[in-house]
Amino acid sequence: MRSKLAACEAVADAVPAFLRNSDQVTLAEFRDYAHAILQRHAELRSIAWTPRVLQSERAQFEADRRAEGLADFEIRDLVESSGPVYTFSHPTRAEVRSDYFPVAFNEPATAAEYLGVDITRLRVNWQRMRTAIDNGAPVASPPYRVDGQPELFLTVYAPGFPRGLQLDSVERRRGAVVGVGQVTMKLFEVMPQLQHDANGTADPVAVELTDLGVAESQRVLYVTDRVRLNALREAHGWERRDRITFAGRTWQLTVIADVSAYTNPWLARLTALFCIALTLASALALGARSLVRQLMAEVDRAQRLGPYTLVEKIGSGGMGGSGARSICSSSAQRR
After folding, report:
1. Within 13 A of 121's CA, how many CA atoms are on the CB side?
2. In this structure, what CATH number is given to the domain that contains residue 123?
């Protein structure tokens, strides 16, 4: 899980470097670059590049994109709805402003409707992108859904800056930024635990994902079923917590499970019988060991007595003479 999250952050950070190390990247070149990464990382949904375009550069930027086959390309504004969902039904040409952050490349091609959209007009997205620029480091969004689908996604924003500049303040970073790379991840591919509630199944597992870096009232990013989570917690179900540091965020993944739901009753009975048999066998072994010890003690005592100890020599009668008398005072010694 941590390795996949780290890979997503590394891919996002590599997008600005790829654009920076090339004089001019075409749509075909970016498509080849993105497809090679997407084939190796099944957990990634899309890769995008959002350059900073000044007003003086706008006409040339739009002409270059149209020359690559995007006939209707232009920098556009979208109407923002009341929630974190945006409509693409009536995009309008962006009004004049000092600079823009339009989506220049977005692969795979299924995400082509985002091309040309100025991120600065999308309040939530721009807030995260601006945070990445101000910090000079990748920043991850909270998990979100698209068009009401059950699958969860998150996007990592990674700013790009020219080489060799001293960027020791927010003002300098804002003035020097050349663009922002974006990588969207399929969260279910990274955290399989979150899939327990994806299809409305009655799996006796509850999962909660919280952001430890924000106010307590806003910490919960995702929970499968709050009622089930509380019930399992009160029933003292099996619980595991993992802390994850990723792209400027510190998350905690909590998994609570009803262990009894995973127990096979026949297997439990066989296990109990095996434990009983093992206990009886241990008791018999201990009893037999005690008996053997007693017998060995008797044998050892008889061996220590020996033939010259069983009979005491008196006078010159010798072992078999009349001067010998027995000192075997017990039946055990005599045996």
Report:
1. 24
2. 3.30.450.350
Residues 51 and 179 in one domain: yes
Work out how many domains the chain is built from and give that number.
3
Q: What DSSP character marks residue 240?
A: E
Are 46 and 148 part of one and the same domain?
A: yes
Query: For each of the chain's 335 residues, which pLDDT tens digit applies?
Result: 788 888 888 999 999 989 887 778 888 899 999 999 999 988 899 999 999 999 999 999 999 989 988 888 899 887 655 454 544 556 788 889 999 999 998 888 665 677 888 888 887 788 889 999 999 999 988 877 776 677 778 899 999 998 888 888 999 999 999 999 999 988 878 776 565 544 444 556 777 888 887 777 777 777 776 776 777 776 666 778 888 888 878 888 888 877 665 555 666 677 778 888 888 888 888 877 777 787 777 766 666 655 554 444 444 444 544 444 555 566 666 66
Question: Do residues 183 and 213 lie in contact, with contact meaning Cβ atoms separated by under 8 Å?
Answer: no
Q: Answer yes or no: do 43 and 62 share one domain.
A: yes
Q: For residue 320, what are the domain limits?
A: 265-334
How far is residue 155's CA from residue 216's CA, in Å, rounded to a whole number? 23
Distance of alpha carbon 126 from alpha carbon 119, whole angstroms: 6
80 and 93 co-located in one domain: yes
Cα–Cα distance between 250 and 246 in angstroms, integer?
Answer: 6
